[in-house]
Design brief:
By secondary structure, this protein is of the alpha+beta class. The protein contains four helices and twelve strands, in the order ααββββββαββββαββ. The strands form three sheets. Strands 4, 5, 6, 7, 8, 9 and 10 form a seven-stranded mixed β-sheet that branches.
Length: about 190
Amino acid sequence: MLRSLLFLGAIVGVSTTIPALYQSNPEAFEAVLKSVTGTSEPTETVASDIKLTAPAPTDVEQPLGRKVLLQQDQAGHFSAPFRVNGRQIDALVDTGATLVALTTSTARRVGISLNPSDFRHEVSTANGKIRGAAVTIARLQIGKINLDNVQAIVLDDRALQTNLIGMSFLGRLASYKAENGTLLLAQ
């Protein structure tokens, strides 16, 4: 009975670790998975003529190097999945925002702990003035672009509907350019 419980505990431990490992470094995880399965493509044959493939991270073919190409959405915005301290978040690229801005719930989820006394900075938003907490994000990533020590502000969930990638990130890139419904970020 004790052996069964230990075995079950090991399975539970491994099964909870795998998603965290994948989320922290999906490219390395997929490389290990490919080497174990011996496939060069992430496909699985279900029937003789039907294949399931992993979806592309974006509909736009990505350029080589430390560049990311984003497609404009139907509302005219550029939103994409980013990684903050290794955890994926959805964010809107906003050249009008001075800083990267995170909601309090997102900050909590990515390991930024705050006290009520940290919300001492007055911030002007489209909805008026609000108090925010200044933080430094250890690592902010999109695709192959990685920046360390990015200045950010954390705002209450009621004041900020979505996370914003502002100039504290964009200004540290080599370039960013919007053209024909796409936004090219280059480090």
